[in-house]
Amino acid sequence: MIYRHFNAPSHAFSQFSHEIIRHPRLSSDAVRLLTWQLSLPQNAHESLSATARRARIGGCAFTRAKRQLKEEGFVHERRVQGPGGRWTTQQLVSSAPLTSGEAAKLLARTPLLACTDRVTPQVVPSPRKPAAGRPIAPSTGGHPDEHLRKDTSNLPAGPAEAVVAPALAPAPAPAPAPAPADGTPASPHLEDARALVGALHLLSPALRHIPPGMRDELARLAARWLDAGHSSADVHEHVLRGLPGAGTAVHRPGGLVRYLLRDVPPRALPTPPTPTPTRIRLSVRLEGTRECTGHHTQPMLFRPLDDETLCAECSPPTPNEPMSVPERDGVHAPS
Predict the structure, then answer these.
(1) Over 70: is that where the pLDDT of 237 sits?
(2) Best exposed site among 38, 103, 269, 317 by fewest CB in 10 Å?
(3) Helix (H) or strand (E) holding 291
(4) What element of type H or E holds 70?
(5) pTM attached to this predicted model
(6) How many angstroms separate the CA atoms of 62 and 52, rounded?
(7) Measured between alpha carbons, how far is 257 from 221 in angstroms, rounded to an integer?
């Protein structure tokens, strides 16, 4: 069982409705924010956010509590423009739910607070003063009457002397790359070598921590490779081949790259591929045939039985084979 003991305060108290404390759709933060605001003096102008800071209500909890109070009609706010163009947010906190029309009537009877800050010229511009004299159109064409030799380089040539326009100063040449300390002349491929070294970290995670102080030295070493005719892809491929296997940590990636680029091998010229003779593929019907070396008006193909080079018509008859006599005038040779 629970027992309650209540002593009515004699001072510093506020009267609230039980509907506020027992409201089913208001959280504890919303109830505390509303009761805190209603307990303030009548002439107090403390905002809801300031009350939330004093009540130790966090940002998200304050946003949720304020949304609940506005949905239930306990809090209403609007934006109005006061004297001097300043926009002000008016907030109305009531002990009973109000509609939008009722809250607008109460806010309309509430005077706006006077702003004591000085209005900047951007808000209230000063009146423009007209220029002295009559308005005239701007002059066009011709040259100024005054002698402006020091202010212009396009002066007309006078009758007594010809004014030569000063030649334009040549553009300053770009500063050459600093030469190495040993007196070796700078390579023309130094800028490409710097870009090559700057892309080493993309090749392997082991090359991500190259000291910045070694980049100039590595760029000079890579420039030697470029001077020898190697391409950037050749240098990257050589560095990748020199890296240790997977799982092996590289503690000094800068020193490893310096060791790999120290010796420049000669560039091997690509050998042209040897042309392979193309074999003419015969049809299946002509497979195994050979051209007769005898006397024929047109090429004569025959299928040899061994290594013979003459067809049956051109080959001499064998001793056991009778010689065939050609037919003449319709007379057949005796068999």
Answers:
(1) yes
(2) 269
(3) strand 290-291
(4) helix 59-72
(5) 0.35
(6) 7
(7) 10
In sequence order, what are the residues at sequence separation of 6 or more whose Cβ sits closer than 8 angstroms to the Cβ of residue 330? none
Q: How far apart are CA 39 and CA 51, in angstroms?
A: 11
Match 């042309």 to its residue by tokens: 275
- Find residue 93's DSSP bridge partners: 75
User: Cα separation of 9 and 32, whole Å?
Assistant: 19
Report d(CA 194, CA 202) in Å as an integer: 14
Which residue, among 217, 219, 174, has the nearest Cα to 196 in the 3D structure? Answer: 219
Q: Predicted confidence band at 249 (pLDDT cuts at 50, 70, 90)?
A: confident
Backbone phi and psi for residue 133, each to the nearest 5 degrees, phi listed first = 90, 180
Cβ atoms within 10 Å, residue 106:
14
- The Cα diameter of the chain in Å comes to 164
Summary mean pLDDT of the chain: 76
DSSP assignment of 131-187: PSS---PPP-SS--SS--TTT-S-PPPPSS-PPPPPPPPPPPPPPPPPPPTT-PPPP
| 30 vs 113: which has the higher pLDDT | 30
Residue type, 318: T
Compute the C-alpha angle 60/61/63, nearest 5°.
65
Tokens read off for 191 = 């800028």
Crossing angle of helices 215-227 and 232-242, rounded to 10° = 120
Distance between CA atoms of 178 and 13, rounded to whole angstroms? 82
**How would DSSP label each residue in 179-243?**
PPTT-PPPPTTHHHHHHHHHTGGGT-GGGTT--GGGHHHHHHHHHHHHHTT--HHHHHHHHHHHS
* Distance from C-alpha of 18 to C-alpha of 40, rounded to nearest angstrom: 19
Q: Tokens in use for 26?
A: 């208001």
**Spacing of C-alpha 169 from chain mean position:** 39
Dig out the tokens for 57 from the structure. Answer: 């209500």
Cβ proximity of 153 and 165 under 8 Å: yes
